[in-house]
Write a structure and sequence with these properties.
The protein is α/β, with parallel strands linked by helices and 304 residues long. The protein is built from 9 helices and 9 strands. The structure holds guanosine-5'-diphosphate and magnesium ion.
Length: 304
């Protein structure tokens, strides 16, 4: 008598320091862009779900903000997302940038892991830029600090080692139902995804001059069959930052708009009409209402 394998499902918390490659890994595993990626630390501000459907399993990855010591309300909220993900997980993956030296920040991550003590897999990322013998001492060090069930050297960027990692994750998932319909790859509403894409382009075009201080609010979102109209406001903290985003003769805002529109048209084909405004709000990072809007799970949330 042959039996089919039981269906498995579960929530996998992807945690690690800022810039370790968490969002890159989730996008690679889900094979869609669910989470924005930039070279700037602390780009991810929320807990973002990336859903992978395979024949015998549904894996729900929780991308999280980088683990750091919080200094503002925004940062506190970001750390709450990390804690929530660790509390809700069936399994955790700690992702470490193997090209960086072990430091205080890494100890802080291990402390956090110990608070929740999930079953965990360690992924040593960015091996494409690491001298391979350097991995061994890192593996030994981490093995002493936490009872990782397996360790995988990977490159989230190049796709190296991901098959093995994914198989190890699925092996450890409990039996369970499909939580999401099989055409959904994230739980983010479209307008939130749109805001995130615009925010990615703002960061990419201004990162030499702006610390990460922008939020994007979608003011209007009308999806039509031939065109989707989006009006969005880019919120900066200081008067001096407005001209940086706008550029001379509005040149930079145009570039941001063009790049964002191209990405948005992939999501909302065939055409997007995008209008961008820039607004100064000195206190947004400590404004509870604005912080609440960061979470698309709150009613009416539309900002990022
Ligand atoms: P997060 O802050 O942990 O979500 O990190 P991101 O996914 O946003 O990645 C931060 C930076 O590291 C980006 O510039 C990525 O392109 C880069 N990155 C991520 N994974 C790899 C990797 O495997 N190799 C290399 N060389 N760079 C990577
Ligand atoms: Mg990220």
């Amino acid at each position: 008598m042959s039996e089919t394998a039981p269906f498995k499902s579960g929530f996998v918390a992807i945690v690690g320091r800022p810039n370790a490659g968490k969002s890159t890994l989730v996008n690679a595993l889900v094979e869609s862009k669910v989470s924005i990626v930039t070279p700037v630390p602390q780009t991810t501000r929320n807990r973002i779900l990336g859903i992978l459907h395979v024949p015998d399993a549904q894996v729900i990855f929780m991308d999280t903000p980088g683990v750091h010591k919080p200094l503002s309300r925004l940062n506190e909220q970001m750390m709450n997302y990390v804690r929530q993900a660790l509390a809700d997980r069936d399994l955790a993956v700690l992702i470490v940038d193997a090209s960086e030296k072990f430091g205080k920040g890494d100890e802080f991550v291990i402390q956090l892991l110990n608070q929740y003590s999930p079953r965990a897999i360690l992924a040593l990322n960015k091996v494409d830029k690491v001298h391979k013998p350097a991995l061994l001492p890192l593996m030994e060090r981490y093995s002493k600090l936490y009872g990782f069930e397996e360790i995988f050297p990977i490159s989230a960027l190049k796709g190296e080692g991901l098959k093995g990692l994914l198989a190890a994750i699925i092996r450890r998932l409990p039996e369970g139902p499909a939580y999401f319909p099989n055409d959904e790859y994230t739980d983010q509403p479209e307008r939130f995804l749109a805001a995130e894409i615009i925010r990615e382009m703002v960061i990419r075009h201004t990162r030499q001059e702006l610390p990460y201080v922008t939020a994007v609010m979608i003011e209007q979102f009308e999806e039509g069959t031939s065109i989707t109209r989006i009006h969005a406001t880019i919120v900066v903290e200081k008067d001096s930052q407005r001209p940086i985003v706008i550029g001379s003769g509005a040149s930079r805002l145009k570039e941001i708009g063009t790049d964002a529109r191209k990405e948005l048209e992939k999501l909302f084909p065939p055409k997007v009409y995008l209008e961008l405004y820039v607004k100064v709000d000195p206190e947004w990072r400590n404004n509870p209402a604005r912080i609440a809007e960061l979470d698309y799970r709150n009613e009416g949330g539309s900002a990022s």
